[in-house]
Amino acid sequence: MRLHFPDENPAPQPARSHRSVDPRRLRADDLRYLLALSRTGRLVTAADALGVDHTTVSRRVAALERSIGLRLIERGAEGWTLTDIGRAVSEDARVIEEAIDRVVDTVAGQDSPSLHGTVRVSAPDGFGTAFATPALVRVRRRHPRLQVELITATRQLALRPSGFDLALVIGVPSSSRLVTEHLTDYTLGLYACDDYLTQYGRPRTVAELREHPLIFYIESMLQVGDLDIERHLPGMTPAFSSTNVFAQLEATQQGAGIGVLPAFLTQRTQLRRLLADEIDIRLPITLAVRREAVTHPAVRALWAALQHEVAERADELMPE
Questions:
Q1: What residues have CB less than 8 Å from 78, skipping those under 6 apart?
Q2: Of 68, 170, 200, 258, which has the fewest beta carbons less than 10 angstroms from its beta carbon?
Q3: What positions does the domain HTH lysR-type occupy (predicted)?
């Protein structure tokens, strides 16, 4: 597995505090609350994973901060994130959580360790549904005690990302808080249904394409630069737009115009590919993991499952 860290040199370790901490004041269980919050970035989500109220998570993390005498979390644009010392503490605390999981497995009489807890995955709506979902379901079948949450949205990641453990994004995110890997490329092309082509004709050149209504994302609400229509079809503006790729697909099937669609979503439709030699948009899908979640066994399992899924179905992503 080839990982990409934004900095060429290893990330500097946070400066260790020289303050004295009485270990008798530290509660190991409080460290589990910090870990849960670090993975989700949300008090409510962390509370659901731990089976408690969100006020309990807030109270226990605050108690841990008082015991240590340092700020471990800070509020970001999309939730709570770890401070540098908070990241170091959570890494050291991970062995406690793993030890508890091993005890649970031993008591349950399991020979091999099972995965527990909650993992949140963020992905574009189309790719998340078609590729992430089957991969995540397979992992869940093997580890029924694992809870998986899939959030679908076509957006960029924040510079201080939170609210997920693992994300799939179009393009290449830039954040020192993420470990990234190029997962795959995929193709977008022009598609239309037979009824539309019968009524309005098939464009034979890119110039003729300008006479037809396009179906794509809402430009003013688009958060992914790689999907900017101006980059791929300069001077053209969609006549039907939606933030949801499945709405775009449905509009194309209904004959509203010519859709700019991922090839993998059209495999099981009757849509016709147009101007394939002239318009063949290829974009990367990047897998991104928050640094504090990289070593989490469940995240690693989902990571491997996603790699397997795209490898097995490469012909759908990049059809000949």
A1: 41, 158, 160, 161, 162, 163
A2: 200
A3: 26-83
Taking the C-alpha atoms of residue 76 and residue 74, their distance in angstroms, rounded to an integer, is 6
Residues of the chain with pLDDT > 70, as a percent, come to: 87
Report all structural domains of the chain as residue ranges with CATH numbers, in order of start: 12-113 (1.10.10.10), 185-281 (3.40.190.10)
Phi-psi sector, 171: left (phi>0), alpha (psi -120 to 50), beta: left
Q: Of residues 106 and 226, which shows the higher confidence score?
A: 226
Calculate mean pLDDT across residues 25-46: 83
Residues 233, 135: Cα–Cα separation, whole Å: 33
Q: What is the pLDDT of residues 154-195, one digit of tens each?
A: 776 654 555 678 999 998 877 777 899 999 999 999 999 999
Q: Are strands 118-123 and 147-152 parallel, antiparallel or unpaired?
A: parallel
pTM of the model: 0.72
Q: Where are the beta strands (DSSP E) in 143-198?
A: 147-152, 166-170, 178-192
Q: How far apart are CA 80 and CA 54, in angstroms?
A: 13
Q: DSSP state, 142?
A: H
DSSP states of 186-249 = EEEEEEE-HHHHHHH----SHHHHTTS-EEE--GGG---GGG-HHHHSTT---SEE-S-HHHHH
Torsion sign (Cα): 218, 219, 225, 229? positive
Block residue for tokens 């990982």: 3
Residue 114: CB atoms within 10 A of its CB come to 16
**The two structure tokens encoding residue 85:** 């010392």
Helix axes 297-312, 133-142, angle to 10 degrees: 130
